[in-house]
Amino acid sequence: MQTTPGTTDSASPDSAAYAPTDRTIPTRSADRASYDRATVHAILDEAYVCHLGFVRDGAPVVLPTLYGRVGERLYVHGSTGSRPLRMARGTSEERDPGLEVCLTVTHVDGLVLARSAFHHSINYRSVVIHGTAHQVTDPEEKRLALDALVDHVVPGRSADSRPADTKELAATAVLSLDLNEVSAKARTGGPNDDPEDMGLPHWAGVVPLRKGHEALIPSEDLAPDIKVPDYLLEL
Amino acid sequence: MQTTPGTTDSASPDSAAYAPTDRTIPTRSADRASYDRATVHAILDEAYVCHLGFVRDGAPVVLPTLYGRVGERLYVHGSTGSRPLRMARGTSEERDPGLEVCLTVTHVDGLVLARSAFHHSINYRSVVIHGTAHQVTDPEEKRLALDALVDHVVPGRSADSRPADTKELAATAVLSLDLNEVSAKARTGGPNDDPEDMGLPHWAGVVPLRKGHEALIPSEDLAPDIKVPDYLLEL
């Protein structure tokens, strides 16, 4: 059951691009869309949380959550009692029905100020993934997924922390979502004012948003002989 | 039709808190939930994009989009041809059916590194809103909404740009969503390692993420006599 990350229906993982589908071809600004695999991976790897959408009692639910990527497969985790995890697990009559999801990742890179109100925008990069998430039941894949989740927060971190024990593993459910039906979208550059507005007396340009992190805050109870590890200095 | 921002069903806008519902009481970490109106407004006002979820052909769709707030009402906008806008408008047989949505806003404030992999987390603040979005048909409310959208990107900006003209207004559709069924959730502080892990030799603490913006980038074609306005210096 889906234990081979990289197996996709619509495009070979070795190909450079995802195959567009009805759901991943945008109705607007199609020139901003991309199906390039490396572009999609880079956007996914840079963000800290995704927004996971699913349908519950006919209504949409969108929750922010951590995730990790291993090749062509994403993982999200949660308590075994959480709603999306329970829904993906199914009932005893209906094993592993999966959960139809839309997983979206967005970076806001800058604020775009135009002379005209209409052309105000943001510079962004986003990835939208449609598909069916399945519960990960293979213990080896579950461990791999949890390592990926920790390494997504800080690359290299999973090797420098105590791995989950049997009790923690049992309390954690993991969903997998294969990268099949995927698109990226991005806006870059300055404002696109109409020619007749160029003489208006309003400042126009881009406010780039800050990235990166501030100074680390060690735990109050951290032993004084524990130095900041290299992978954090490189963050 | 919904032309009075602030009219809510489940709680008076004058009350300090939103009334919890089945959908806004979390199954997990209920101690992190809040229904405080000022807390919710502050989280909404600080973010640049929301993630708007809706159901299309039975499947979830989650799209990042700009938004604005006026009192107890949120506005999102888009092309009159965009899918969620068309869906909210309905057909000639079914006028103004609205579109059931879940609108989520998330700030990632810091990365939480624990001694144990299991307790890795992020510090975040999020707001989740459930409700039915309706198309704004009143011209006056539509203008107010578009001003709110621009001022959400940069407070004070709508007064310093050319307002939308008739053609631009006609090409833009606006959805409103009242703040009725709303919850906030937040995690703050350091890692919550188990007592037996405190002696492990792993660095533990928080990596605070940077906020704010880098130096402004004026448009290449900006007239040299146009100075940076005060509201941008205060950003």
- What overall geometry of chain A do the principal axes of the alpha carbons give? globular
Q: How large a portion of the residues of chain A is in β-strands, by DSSP E?
A: 25-35%
How is the CATH topology of chain A named? Pnp Oxidase, Chain A
Query: Could you state the order of secondary-structure elements of chain A as H and E?
Result: EHEEEEHEEHHEEEEH
* Biggest interface between chains: A-B, 96 and 97 residues
Report the count of strand segments of chain A.
Answer: 11
Q: In terms of per-residue confidence, which ranges of chain A show pLDDT below 50 for 5 or more consecutive residues?
A: 1-10
Output mean pLDDT of chain A.
91
| Number of helices in the DSSP assignment of chain A | 5
User: What characterizes the major β-sheet of chain A?
Assistant: 10 strands, antiparallel
| Tally of distinct domains of chain A | 1
Report on the architecture of this protein.
Two copies of one chain form a homodimer. The first copy, chain A, has 235 residues and is α+β, with helices and mostly antiparallel strands. Chain A has one domain (30-233): Pnp Oxidase, Chain A (Roll). Chain A contains five helices and eleven strands; from the N terminus they run E-H-E-E-E-E-H-E-E-H-H-E-E-E-E-H. Chain A has helices at 37-46, 83-89, 139-153, 166-171, 230-233; strands at 33-34, 49-56, 59-66, 68-70, 73-79, 99-113, 121-135, 172-178, 181-187, 205-208, 217-218. In chain A, strands 1, 2, 3, 4, 5, 6, 7, 8, 9 and 10 form a ten-stranded antiparallel sheet that branches. Chain A is globular and about 65 Å long. Chains A, B: Residues 7-22 have a biased composition (Low complexity).
